[in-house]
Specification:
About 30% of the residues lie in helices and about 25% in strands. By secondary structure, it is an alpha/beta fold. It has a single domain, classed as Stationary-phase Survival Protein Sure Homolog, Chain: A (3-Layer(aba) Sandwich).
Length: about 270
């Protein structure tokens, strides 16, 4: 029987977590591991400098393993402490989309899928353009998530990941804009440019609120699919960060490094 681990970064309180669990619960032995508190935008953080608590609770009829750490901590504890070695990790459904490489590297939801991929475990990360947990009660978005998540998870458990794909990020438009279309997309580079609004506190000292300025999406990107076309975006991703450029492109860099190597040699001769 396949083993499926369901996790997220919005904590065990999020209704998106249980929507995802209900989407895949018929596919094998399915367990939920989540965080005690919302851990959005923590990226790939790991708790190296503090002990972790792992408690099994029942919440609204669901059995949940709750970790007082990060989403990646939850995955590690499931495998190393409980011996639950999943055949598939599904993460989400995140409150808020995770579009572009910019958000991919910020997101705890995607980070746990990436960590699973690093460990050789197929993984799917689900996000939706909603602002509140309660929006997952919307039947339109709930049924869309269940259909897509179940179909994809079933396929991956049977066939494995497509060639040269380590994990997949899936983003749903808002309940108001979603249309009956799915696009295979590439992740755009950036979602927004940083800008700040300066305000004064009660003592007249300045502080700053981040005010992101959106970047117009390119056709074929994940942002374009969700915000322009109203389609579900399916973005295949790889963990490997190494470049594939040829040696010819690196000639200038090699020349600089040979110069640095000479400096290093002279330094070390002094010792």
């Amino acid at each position: 029987m396949p083993k499926v681990l369901v996790t997220n970064d919005d904590s065990y309180l999020s209704k998106g977590l249980y929507l995802l669990y209900d989407s895949v619960k018929d596919l094998g032995e399915v367990r939920i591991y989540s965080t005690l508190w919302p851990r959005s935008a923590v990226g790939h953080s790991v708790s190296f400098n503090k002990p972790l608590r792992l408690d099994k609770i029942t919440f609204e009829g669901y059995e949940v393993n709750v970790v007082d750490g990060s989403p990646v901590d939850a995955l590690h504890l499931a495998i190393a402490a409980h011996g639950f070695e999943p055949d598939l990790v599904v993460s989400g459904v995140n409150v808020g989309e995770n579009l572009t490489i910019q958000h991919i590297v910020y997101s705890g939801t995607i980070a746990v899928a990436m960590e699973a991929a690093l460990m050789g475990i197929p993984a799917l990360a689900f996000s939706a353009d909603v602002r509140l947990w309660e929006e997952f009660k919307n039947e339109k978005i709930a049924r869309a998530v269940r259909a897509v998540a179940n179909t994809l998870a079933k396929f991956i458990l049977k066939e494995g990941m497509p060639e040269n794909v380590d994990f997949i990020s899936i983003n749903f438009p808002s309940p108001d804009t979603i249309k009956p279309c799915i696009r295979i997309t590439r992740a755009a580079r950036r979602r927004w440019k940083p800008a700040f609004e300066m305000r004064l506190d009660t003592r007249g000292r300045p502080y700053y609120w981040l005010h992101p300025l959106p970047i117009n999406p390119e056709k074929g990107s994940d942002v374009y699919a969700v915000y322009v076309e109203g389609c579900v975006s399916v973005t295949p991703l790889k963990v490997d960060l190494n470049t594939n450029i040829g040696r010819e492109s690196l000639k200038v860099l090699e020349e600089v490094l040979r110069e640095a190597e000479g400096l290093l040699e002279r330094i070390l001769e002094e010792f």
